[in-house]
Amino acid sequence: MTAGRPQRRPVVALYGRIADAIHEGVYPPGSTLPSEPRLAAELGVGRPALREALLLLQEDGLLSVRRGVGRTVNASPPRRGYELLRPLEELLAGGAGLRVRPLLRTVEEPTDFTAQHLLAPAGSELRFWESVLTGDGSAGVLSQEWSAPEEVLERAHPAFAEALRAPTAPGGSMLAVLAPASRGIALSGHSAVSATLLGARRGEQLGRAPDTPAVLVTQVVRVGESPVLAAKHMLPTGAPALPVLQSN
To answer: Where are the beta strands (DSSP E) in the chain?
Structure first.
């Protein structure tokens, strides 16, 4: 981990301010947020940054957008579910694999997304990996992954904790580190698939326009009842197809 206290990215800090206001009842369930100009003025921020934070809050289930009404506060976050537990770089491109280019390897404090899905207490430190997956002739995919707090990993999956600490950890995804460390350990994965837009920051990372449509896949991996990894995978238009297996 790091010696200093991890710093939140600006959009995450703004996300946290709005999420805190929701949890404190400033914007109760079912209420409608003020218009973007008014909310930006109240928070003392620019509208582009506010729009990015609102997009993340919508993706994480705190807000819904209703035509003719605006952004409303949800009563409860949506359920999440997913079937096939394999690293994304293996799932895409029909098993041929994609190149994983690390953008960021750091630690950060929990957001509502990671607090909800990793049961991370306020003030804890979570490893955060941000990567772009690319293949020949395919649009890039942005992947963001968080591991549970160190003390949780030490109890639930010490081999995964050790693999993440290794200085020679692979340059692939965090799930690609988890998989070989889990031989003999049963894992379960749950995710949801929803439609969204890239937004300015992610559009810049992928070299795409901010209003590019995208599929957002959220994923949580558990050992028993303990969540050890949470992820967001952003697949813009033109990205490789994501296979989903179903059975009954």
So the answer is: 63-66, 70-73, 99-108, 126-134, 141-147, 188-197, 213-223, 226-236
Phi, psi (degrees; rounded to nearest 5) at 196: -155, -170
The DSSP secondary structure of 139-150, one letter per residue, reads: --EEEEEEEPPH
State the average pLDDT over residues 45-59.
91
| Distance spanning both ends of the chain, measured CA to CA | 43
Q: Which residues of 182-209 are buried (b: 16+ CB within 10 A; e: fewer)?
A: beeeebebbbbbeebbbbbbbbebbebe
pTM as predicted: 0.74
Fill in the DSSP letter of residue 86.
S
pLDDT digits (tens, 9 = 90+) for 220-233: 999 999 999 999 99
Write down the pLDDT at residue 96: 56
